[in-house]
């Protein structure tokens, strides 16, 4: 009878050992996968914004009058990725056959939205009456703005306007990125 009892015990041992190994793997793999998923945003590299497509070059008038365009970009926030999110706006002016001047549409004084006036061929901030030339320079010496409008790095690639969009500290005479 002892031989018959040993055979089932051996079978039970292999079954129990396999169950312990599989159970141990499951109890280790699942929490590790959960922790890695939870910590994933911390492992990613920080978002360094590059060039953003603005509009086709052909959408600019040939007479050099600036046009205002929204800046749309993809935002990544922890686990979420949202495309075509408005992050600002710019004025784009044709300055040559394939060159442009791009100005941030925010006033460097307090951050109000600047408008373009075709009649005076310049920009005007309605909040504190800052006036800017078409180049973005301060047009009125009594202007409360500490500096001219912020010019952004831009290039024309394959008939499209690309801009390195960024905002700068308001109220400072220096152009300090934020």
Automatic annotation (TrEMBL):
<keyword id="KW-0479">Metal-binding</keyword>
<dbReference type="InterPro" id="IPR017941">
    <property type="entry name" value="Rieske_2Fe-2S"/>
</dbReference>
<dbReference type="GO" id="GO:0046872">
    <property type="term" value="F:metal ion binding"/>
</dbReference>
<dbReference type="GO" id="GO:0051537">
    <property type="term" value="F:2 iron, 2 sulfur cluster binding"/>
</dbReference>
<keyword id="KW-0408">Iron</keyword>
<keyword id="KW-0472">Membrane</keyword>
<keyword id="KW-0812">Transmembrane</keyword>
<dbReference type="Pfam" id="PF00355">
    <property type="entry name" value="Rieske"/>
</dbReference>
<feature type="transmembrane region" description="Helical">
    <location>
        <begin position="17"/>
        <end position="39"/>
    </location>
</feature>
<dbReference type="InterPro" id="IPR006311">
    <property type="entry name" value="TAT_signal"/>
</dbReference>
<dbReference type="InterPro" id="IPR036922">
    <property type="entry name" value="Rieske_2Fe-2S_sf"/>
</dbReference>
<keyword id="KW-0001">2Fe-2S</keyword>
<keyword id="KW-1133">Transmembrane helix</keyword>
<protein>
    <submittedName>
        <fullName>Rieske (2Fe-2S) protein</fullName>
    </submittedName>
</protein>
<feature type="domain" description="Rieske">
    <location>
        <begin position="68"/>
        <end position="163"/>
    </location>
</feature>
<keyword id="KW-0411">Iron-sulfur</keyword>
């Amino acid at each position: 009878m002892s031989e018959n009892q040993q055979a089932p015990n051996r079978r039970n041992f292999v079954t129990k050992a396999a169950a312990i190994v599989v159970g141990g793997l499951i109890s280790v793999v699942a929490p590790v996968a959960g922790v890695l998923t939870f910590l994933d945003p911390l492992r990613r590299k920080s978002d360094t914004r590059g060039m953003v497509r603005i509009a086709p070059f052909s959408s600019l008038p040939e007479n050099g009058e600036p046009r205002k365009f929204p800046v749309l970009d993809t935002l990544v926030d922890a686990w979420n990725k949202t495309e075509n999110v408005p992050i600002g706006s710019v004025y784009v002016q044709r300055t040559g056959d394939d060159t442009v001047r791009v100005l941030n549409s925010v006033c460097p004084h307090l951050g109000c939205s600047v408008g373009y006036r075709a009649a005076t061929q310049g920009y005007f901030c309605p909040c504190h009456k800052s006036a800017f030339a078409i180049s973005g320079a301060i047009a009125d010496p009594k202007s409360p703005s500490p500096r001219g409008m912020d010019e952004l790095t831009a290039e024309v690639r394959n008939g499209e306007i690309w801009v390195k969009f960024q905002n700068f500290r308001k109220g400072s005479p220096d152009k300090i990125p934020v």
